[in-house]
Amino acid sequence: MIRISSQQIFSGGINRLQDLSAQLNKTDEQIATGKRVNRPSDDPVAAARILKLDQEVKRIETYERNAQLANNRLGQEESAISSSLDILQRVRELTVQAGNGSLSASDRLSISSEMKERLQQLAQTANTQDASGEYIFSGFQGGSPAYAKEAGEWTYQGDEGQRMLEIDDGVTVAISDNGKGIFDRIPATASGALTGPLPLPVPAPDGRINSISVINRSDLQAGGFSTLEVRASASILGGELDGLDVLNTDGTINKTVPFVAGEPVTVNGVQFTLTDAVVNDVFTIETGEKQSVFRTIENLISGLDNLSKSGSAGSDAYNDLIAGSLANIDNAQESFILKQTELGGRMNSVESTQAFLEDSALYSKEIRSQLQDIDYAEAISTLSFQSFVLQAAQQSFARVSQLSLFDRL
């Protein structure tokens, strides 16, 4: 015979009621939070996997924010360059208009006045700021304007830094471009001037070099000269000018090409004409220079304001200014378009990464939901059953606790 004391009966009953109440509270908590696993003890294996998935989702969300930031910055830069192209197109139209030989001096001043406004607009575009107030074309010096006016000229104030941003594991994208690489380093057309023999007398000789253009860049590169120095020469001592000596950097003759007055001459892929040149005149031609788009427009404005078209020298200088400016503007437009294409490629890359991150986040959240979230229908059914069992146990315990051997006497 096993003897069961009243204390055992009460202790066992209370323990059972506590267990049932704990199960009911657990189910109630799951319904309230919507989670099947609220603490590691609920399901240790699932809890470990949920923790890893939480970390993965947070990692993806961080990269998604970075990708959105990159997309916004690149979109703003692309918009600024697009605006610059529109401004430059208007400057080109004005330059073509300025080349009209029937314009008066007041007409040229009117064109110059509008060009000054367009130059100011271009500088404002180059000094575009992002939402945080940083100048997007200043490199790492985002707190300072990219361009400022010094001694009447717009000059670059930033550095050559390029900001990078990680948008996924091992995937980085450039989110900025310094203005020096966009607005400054633009190939300039060939230019030339009378530079010798030194010292040049006062007033300077009448010899002029005009209509300079690179017609064969392969020949220019093969010649190995970015600066050409040519000297007018005569095949017969004391004779008329009939040749041009191409000089080495040490002043020795590299080669001699024939020259006919009034006809263009080509040297190392560079074509030009000489006017009023005499034997021993030395002309220097620059072919490898870079020039900012601001300098191009500034030079054009200065020419419109100051150059006179009177006389053959003035007319030649003015025509060279217009032709050279048009070529430099075309080079700037091409440079801007290439940058736009590059930005488009970067934005496509960012968008592809965003789509991948979105898919990865969705997949991770679905797995986490399967491990963590409850089935409400099942949970509510379980809660009702547990509530019924607890109520029945309470009623049963209440009746059992009142039993006594004295009731049988």
Automatic annotation (TrEMBL):
The keyword Plastid does not apply. Keywords: Bacterial flagellum, Cell projection, Cilium, Coiled coil, Flagellum, Secreted. Residues 53-80 form a coiled coil. It holds the Pfam family Flagellin_N. Residues 15-139 form the Flagellin N-terminal domain. Residues 327-404 form the Flagellin C-terminal domain. Belongs to the bacterial flagellin family. InterPro entries: Flagell_FlgL, Flagellin, Flagellin_C, Flagellin_N. This is Flagellar hook protein FlgL. It is found in: Bacterial flagellum; Secreted. One of its GO terms (cellular component) is extracellular region. It comes from Marinobacter psychrophilus. GO terms for biological process: bacterial-type flagellum-dependent cell motility. NCBIfam families: flagell_flgL. GO terms for molecular function: structural molecule activity.
